[in-house]
Amino acid sequence: MSFSTILFKKSDRIAYITLNRPEALNGLTFEMMDEMNQALADIRNDHGIKALVITGSGRAFSVGADINLLTGAFDNPGKMRHFLETINQLFFNIEALPVPVIAVVNGLARAGGFELVLSCDLAIAADDAKIGDNHTNFGVMPGGGGTQRAPRKIGSQRALELIYTARWLTGKEAADYGIVLRSAPADTLDESLEELLADLREKSRDCLGFVKRAVVQGEHLSLSDAIDLEIEYFLEYLTTSPDMKEGFMAYKEKRKPVFAGG
Q1: What are the residue ranges spanned by the domains of the chain?
Q2: 3-state class of 196 per DSSP?
Q3: Rounded to an integer, what distance in angstroms lies between the CA atom of residue 38 and that of residue 165?
Q4: Are 233 and 217 in contact (CB under 8 A)?
């Protein structure tokens, strides 16, 4: 697939989306969001893919909405609603993708770029990356889910501090906060990513997908309802995929499992 605003490739059971507007610090446009959605649809249908990596080209991950995209939107609630619904649907699509999604924050991630990181399952960052919400510096409130995903990920007190103050976090600080899984020196970021991917390539895609669905949907339920959800997904996985039985038989027979999709 060929795109204008992103780079998309697949290699060794991993898909990669690179936001590719470095001259605009990978600001999100309608075209970029549409191309990302097309790539997500491709991954959803390719059962050989075990994970997706999202990163940015140049010195930024993403600074959020492209400034030109929002020109006139603050005087046009209908135009603003269309943008907010579009960006939030993209983030919902990332959360619904049936494989782990890993953000690799190589530089600047602010506003909608920060919200994009929050929508990913896992994230790693360069030690010197700059990560923050930043909306309130300009009298704007988050609209891409920041007020909702950040508290769910790091607790309301830390989330409110970051949104209220709009302060920057380094990659190291973001790891301490729990916004990213871990940070690494910029020149070893690829190696840190590979350590993570190495543990995913041999897994059952169906298993990973059901685990993700249970976690994403269950965290908003009571514990009792979430356990019921887990049981239902366990049984759905058991009855719709050969992988659970294959894994059990492989363990019993002391061999390496061979999962559907490779």
Answers
A1: 6-198, 205-252
A2: helix
A3: 36
A4: no
pLDDT band at 262 (very low <50, low <70, confident <90, very high): low
- List pLDDT tens digits, range 222-253: 999 999 999 999 999 999 999 999 999 999 99
55 vs 109: CA distance, rounded Å = 10
* Residue 84 structure tokens: 């907010």
Give the side-chain half-sphere CA count within 13 A for 243.
Answer: 19
Q: How many CB atoms lie within 10 A of CB 77?
A: 9
Structure token digits, residue 133: 């919400």
Q: Which two tokens stand for residue 174?
A: 């973001």
CATH 1.10.12 matches 205-252: yes
The token pair that represents 40 in the structure block: 């997500």
Residue carrying the six token digits 């191309």: 35
Please give the C-alpha separations between residue 87 and each of 67, 79, 118, 172, 236, in angstroms, as whole numbers.
14, 13, 13, 27, 31
Please say whether the structural domain 6-198 has been given the CATH code 3.90.226.10: yes
What single DSSP character describes residue 75? Answer: G
